Amino acid sequence: MTLRYLPEYVSQVRQSLALAHKEAEHLRYSQSTLFALPLDRAWVQALGQQPALAEKVEAFASRFARLLDHLGEKLLPRYAALVGEPTRTLLDTLAFAERAQVLPDAQAFIAARRLRNALVHEYMHDAQVFLESLLAAQSACELFFGTIEQVDAQLVRLGIERD
């Protein structure tokens, strides 16, 4: 008999994956509404006088950070445990996830963590840096969504059905 995964972790992974899907859905909504707008430096500079737009940015940044944290702190470590990989640090988990082809690019994930801080703080200080961070975060969202899809695919490959 070949053991492909540790059954005691299935419930945790399913739970984390379900939450990741919900958070991704909310992030997709914020992403689609925010990036439908013509974003440029002048737009960013005007955020202070446009509370409704600032709120859109805050929603996007919050949802971005929440999904980033969930993937790095819950879903990926729990997936690693499921397949018998000991988890130690975030870097170990990301390296494993990249080797397992669940995470396309560990370096891009680390870069997304830096973006989170810029999204929270920079628009008050430097409009150009904030604009660049927003645009980079838009690309990072695709990394998150792809990671969730890959975990889904791996569970199917392992014969684990979603709830």
Question: Can you put this structure into words, describing what you see?
Answer:
The protein has 163 residues and is mainly α. The protein has helices spanning 10-34, 41-45, 51-82, 90-99, 106-121, 127-158. The chain has one domain: Four Helix Bundle (Hemerythrin (Met), subunit A), CATH 1.20.120.
Instruction: Give the beta-strand count.
Output: 0
User: Uncertain regions: pLDDT < 50 for 5+ in a row?
Assistant: none
Radius of gyration: 17 Å
Q: How many helices?
A: 6
What letter string, H or E per element, gives the SSE order?
A: HHHHHH
* CATH hierarchy, class: Mainly Alpha
Summarize the biggest pleated sheet.
Answer: none
CATH fold-level assignment: Four Helix Bundle (Hemerythrin (Met), subunit A)
Mean pLDDT: 93
CATH architect. name: Up-down Bundle
Please tell me the total number of domains: 1
Percent helix range:
over 70%
Q: First CA to last CA: what distance? A: 25 Å
The computed structural class is mainly alpha
Overall form: elongated
How much of the sequence lies in strands comes to under 5%
List strands and helices in order, with pairings.
Elements: H1 10-34, H2 41-45, H3 51-82, H4 90-99, H5 106-121, H6 127-158
Helix pairs in contact: 1-3, 1-6, 3-4, 3-5, 3-6, 5-6
At a glance:
74% of the residues lie in helices and 0% in strands.
Distinctive features:
163 residues, Four Helix Bundle (Hemerythrin (Met), subunit A), 0% strand
